[in-house]
Amino acid sequence: MNIQFKKGVLELCALTLLAKKNRYGYELVNEISKNISISEGTIYPLLRRLKNDGYVTTYLEESKEGAPRKYYQLTETGKKMEKELREEWLIFVKKVNSFLKGGVKNE
Amino acid sequence: MNIQFKKGVLELCALTLLAKKNRYGYELVNEISKNISISEGTIYPLLRRLKNDGYVTTYLEESKEGAPRKYYQLTETGKKMEKELREEWLIFVKKVNSFLKGGVKNE
DNA sequence: TATAAATACCTTGCAATGTATAATACCTTG
DNA sequence: CAAGGTATTATACATTGCAAGGTATTTATA
């Protein structure tokens, strides 16, 4: 899969999944991997960015299956960001598709 | 507009426009800019990459309106690439949209 | 003639972000 | 206690878009 397509979209995917419920990093990797190939080395730095930017907060919880899990929870800013990014994405896709269909305006 | 969304997509846009007819760099900047904000500093390096990778060939033509124009022409490899990238893009969009609609499989 | 503006091309350094790889740590099972 | 799955983190790297700046040509303006 084209690596470049993913840039910026993974953030949207992560925010979207977190908008439904709190999840831990490893879980996000697995969920996203079902549709888009992705590795751990991608998600964890992304989650740290989201936290640094104030879009999520984190808390630890024990797990019966291994190491403790760090859960990520959207902040209000994060929820707002999720909506904005989603809208931007839909507009962007429309514009690109208008190219593919040969319909460049004013030509 | 989100910069990251553009990654890789601009290449597809350029290839798509070139699939219709040969164009010069400055023209591509203007055409793409009608839909997606883009600067010359993005297109010229991109076109050089396309040439280095064998997707386009170039030739010069005089212009009455300014400096000579460097036209870009798709090679056979370039045409193939355009199709592939287009298909990859459409598949990718579908996958992302399946996230946005909340329909992550196997959940 | 000189100056400005538009056209057209190119280069450099930077920022953002995905990847590969490895290290660390926890827990369960044999 | 060693092995392997679970889970997080860190580092070095590659790609690509952007801003800023530069060059050259033509035409219009002063």
Describe the structure.
- The first copy, chain A, is globular.
- Chain A contains five helices and three strands; from the N terminus they run ααβααββα.
- Chain A starts with a helix and ends in a 7-residue tail after the last helix.
- The longest helix of chain A is centred in the C-terminal third of the chain and has 25 residues, at 76-100.
- Chain A has one domain: Orthogonal Bundle (Arc Repressor Mutant, subunit A).
- The first copy, chain A, has 107 residues and is α+β, with helices and mostly antiparallel strands.
- Chain A is 59% helix and 13% strand.
- Chains A and B meet through helix 1, helix 2 and helix 5 of A and helix 1, helix 2 and helix 5 of B.
- The structure holds a DNA duplex (30 and 30 nucleotides).
Features:
Arc Repressor Mutant, subunit A; homodimer; 3 strands; DNA-binding; three-stranded antiparallel sheet; alpha+beta; 5 helices; 107 residues
Which structural category do the helix and sheet elements of chain A fall into?
Answer: alpha+beta
Indicate the percent of residues in helices of chain A.
55-70%
Instruction: Tell me the number of helical segments of chain A per DSSP (H or I, 4 or more residues long).
Output: 5
List the quaternary state of the chains: homodimer
Low-confidence stretches of chain A: none
* Integer count of domains of chain A: 1
Rg calc of chain A: 16 Å
N-to-C order of helices and strands of chain A = HHEHHEEH
Average pLDDT rating of chain A: 90
What top-tier CATH class of chain A fits best? Mainly Alpha
Strand content range of chain A: 5-15%
